[in-house]
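Continuing the batch. This is chain 6 of the set; chains 1 through 5 are on the previous pages. Same settings as before, nothing changed between runs. Recording input and output for traceability.
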Amino acid sequence: QVQLVESGGGLVQPGGSLRLSCVASGSISSGNAMGWYRQAPGKERELVATILSGASVSGANVNYADSVKGRFTISRNSAGNTVYLQMNSLKPGDTAVYYCNFHRLWPPVRDYWGQGTQVTVSS
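Output for chain 6:
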């Protein structure tokens, strides 16, 4: 079992910045990916960014949705139990509930989800 605790959401003006954090505990040995998804009212949940265990932010095992490339940066701490999402140049269209995700790559493959944190971009 994996537990995910998110923090860092809030209200910010357009052009501002926020940093989301997600701390994982439990069975988090190597062989996993962590990432962020978001869902706005009336829209389908979408991938924001993912990063594999042991990857750097500039490595090949980091990927982003086209809508956030150049504005958002995903990273993990050296222990691999915390994932961050640095969000810069925020737009009203970024307003959504952001969910932390843990994807287990060893059998049985499965996903774990955080409770979600609200990000609101408004003047």
